């Protein structure tokens, strides 16, 4: 059963890290004319109201995009991300938050392709009505882990995969590793972005090491920790982005924004970031 709804979390600190990284990689891919395919295996609804009862319930966006919205000292990559959110809010106020398909839609060019997979019936319906008839975009209500193999390698052999599951059950951690291991045998040179939560679970702690083991050509691992788990060990302390075959410039771009994000998004004195990278 799919209980997770991203509408509760849209625009939180984890979305900030994820979408800043996604935009950096898309801009890098746009540096060459040759088209590419972006496969978003867990696409969500595509956009979220920040005024609706889901987003308002915990107000997570207030500790994420909300802390960036009025700032006039944004580092370059964060400024580009906030500009993207502004494009999604033509009236000027922060009322809606773009999901990964919307950020992609802003940056993809006519020669690029977007493949979106979303299993939740409501979010799939919203996504399909938003982007389902857009040229070069396909929206599917299929299991993204399973569908990935049919999408790679792309015809141009340029491609990016965003894997952003809900990790509702323990099984998602293993499915991430399994589907990426398979994907790398089909398309070794693809760029793969995996988001994961920093939560008190063995599977979450082990995931980066398991991903390192399947990424012989190089990887980058960025973590942003903003809060302490509660006294029972629950809660989202932060999140990580693990990138297989990262563009060379990505480490420098993230190094330039992560300390600033710690200062602005940190919710306790121990807030911190980490950035590791191994090149082939
Ligand atoms: C974290 S949200 C995605 C957020 C989105 N990528 C973004 O950045 O805006 C994860 C989504 O995956 C969906 N989902 C869960 N399991 C799935 C699966 N096996 N295949 C495709 N979608 C799935 C959930 O319904 C949820 O909407």
Q: What report would you give on this structure?
A:
This protein has 280 residues and is an alpha/beta fold. It has ten helices and ten strands. The chain has helices at 13-29, 53-58, 65-68, 76-87, 100-107, 121-131, 144-147, 171-186, 202-213, 250-265, and strands spanning 37-40, 47-49, 96-98, 113-117, 137-140, 159-163, 191-198, 218-225, 238-244, 272-279. An eight-stranded mixed beta sheet has the order 5-4-1-6-7-9-8-10, with helices on both faces. A two-stranded antiparallel ribbon has the order 2-3. The chain is globular, with a radius of gyration of 17 Å. The termini are far apart. S-adenosylmethionine binds at residues 2, 4, 6, 18, 42-44, 99-100, 117-120, 123, 143-145, 164-166.
Give the topology.
Blueprint (H helix, E strand, L loop, with lengths): L12 H17 L7 E4 L6 E3 L3 H6 L6 H4 L7 H12 L8 E3 L1 H8 L5 E5 L3 H11 L5 E4 L3 H4 L11 E5 L7 H16 L4 E8 L3 H12 L4 E8 L12 E7 L5 H16 L6 E8 L1
Parallel strand pairs: 1-4, 1-6, 4-5, 6-7
Antiparallel strand pairs: 2-3, 7-9, 8-9, 8-10
The site of S-adenosylmethionine (SAM) has 20 residues, from helix 7.
